[in-house]
């Protein structure tokens, strides 16, 4: 009987649960959350379905997810003749990205003609003034309205949906008049993957009562949060790097249409108000000054619209336009750009300091009103803006203009894959790229180190990019070695740094493409057009023979690392050649990859597998029938052909790890290698069987691993693992109690002299001269001196600590530092002797005799200064290191790097490697794949991952 009663109670509970849940989840009414404003007003076409009906809730009352937004747009596309939808890309997760073209049916039928006329207006080389005038008279205004590039900044996309409905369904005369002479392109949701992630977290943390606490998970979401895309990339930093499909498709369409106006709807801190343009200084000096004039016009009208509603706002203040990778990228092509920054909140709203509650629908309303205000301003000023645009385009190609006598040259090199990647980025942005048909001598050129070279020879095969082109401002912005900044900005930045450590700089201060790509480049002060021809993409060729005994891919090409990794994953044994080599009249660079028949006796279709892998990567393979190395170059059976070990890779993530760097590392593995790997939640590390992996990567983090986790990794390394750490994760391992022998600079001063002696030994090992008389002497040199004998007495530890604390205040927000690479180390295969390194406020690493400094900050050069300098006295600023006699150290390459920061960064190690038991620890001072675009340092990371298990860890022989 009791059993029957239990079942009855259980069944009753199941029956009433839905009803109980409905009561539980019914929102509690809160009078503070009842927004008094009206989002949509006026008369609307009854044949077009209102958004509330399509979404199932009042628009702006909740966050519409990507599926709901896309479905509503496609539904309207079947109802309205004012709307056309164009899909311009798909996200990594397969979600569509669309541009919604809105205008009158007549103008929508003429879109191809309109775009063709805009193209003509953009090219003053083929269009006359009279033709331009006629085009301007005929052209409608064109606006590109884009929203929610950060997925957790949601109000923009909901406002976009509101704007689409309003523009296609409104029967008000002002809307009809607006569309009579305007094409509005709405990019409603720039980051669907991130929005989907955030929308899911809202669903998970939504409660019965409205939650207006902006610290709750409802408002913030979970790691990695909704801001970024699938690979955790900030899409609003990618506009000229073009690493993500969302950006590639969007930039292509924006560049095709060259809109007069582009707005970008964002959100900011939840306790803020509303920011709108124009931006403050620093402004990139390549932007057409006319755009700043129009920025003020748009700001006045937008602020007036807010004043009428009684809404608080401000312009500029913290927003600057120096870095060209934001959505203001369009300004470099002549487009007026406006940023919206609405205070961020989830759908329940947020309680403000004054005690009021700002609701989510109010945020949507702010974005919607801003949209309409900007469109009205454009409608009034379109013709005048077109005339300014035409004048700007003419200035770009003027024979005496600011861009007239300047050419950027990328020196010929063997890294075909990386060079091709650079060219593809430039061509995608309508930049003309040429190739030197033969050696070209120029009178003068400036190197990336700031050195002026006279009578320089530009080798045949170099890339030549004249600045005098229609897209001249964009070319200058992304190719010049230094972005100009005025003295007032520099002074204010210095004052802020000293006063409280704040900064005017919102982002990195260095971004030059050739430096990011690690390609040698010079700037020539002339317009080079002779002895060049347009660049054309080449197809790889294979030199295969039937009786081959080995197949080799050149190690200068980044794709050689992926070639090795993919073959190993397919069960092929692969070797790494650690010296330059030559076989049958074909030369190969250090780091080349060889596959031999003797290593793979049972591998069927070996040649076909090699060809398939090479074709996937578009890299050339050379077959050889002889393993004899010409001259003193290595043979295939000697010690210079190292057998590699297949990497089994894990990336630690979640917890305190920085999602940007986790994502960039993940992206590098998928994009550059295309091999299997695992992400491991650091919170479950203690329960993870680490024996499955021989490579573990620790991206940079905001908190150190606890001692238990470090001990776990330490044991794993000693058993043969390769541990790779970036940035602050590297600092945790190099801390006083960390498991690495390498130490951070603040933990090194106790043994400052030892580090200096180690540095001296490294320098002396690279000298190309020897005292033969002393070496062959039969007599003991009674006057022999040790390298440290003539050094000043080292400062005490407390004084070095005090000085370092002072210098640390001046660390950059992102500047390019000249790196010198150990060209005999396997980690530097495929990298030049001088490698640009991106430094920010990151840890500085110190390497002595118990570790290897593979890449150091600073490149030695002659000391040409007439005044007595640190180089002449052999000591620099009484820090921990010594400079060789008559040598200077070049540190800064690009960006804002205060002298104090140069002093602190100089001679520290960017990349270190140390043995630990049977394994090794590899530390990067910074983030080697910064924004997926730092291809120069990313090569170091790829080498560490793929070659580390075979070259740096103790090999095991299977019996």
From TrEMBL:
Q: Name one GO molecular function term.
A: zinc ion binding
Write the signal peptide boundaries. Answer: none
Q: Which domain of life is it from?
A: Bacteria
Cofactor dependence is on: Zn(2+)
> What Gene3D superfamilies does its record include?
3.40.50.880, Zn peptidases (3.40.630.10)
**This protein's UniProt keywords:** Hydrolase, Metalloprotease, Protease, Zinc
UniProt similarity note: Belongs to the peptidase M14 family.
Name assigned to this protein: Peptidase
Recorded source organism is Alteromonas hispanica
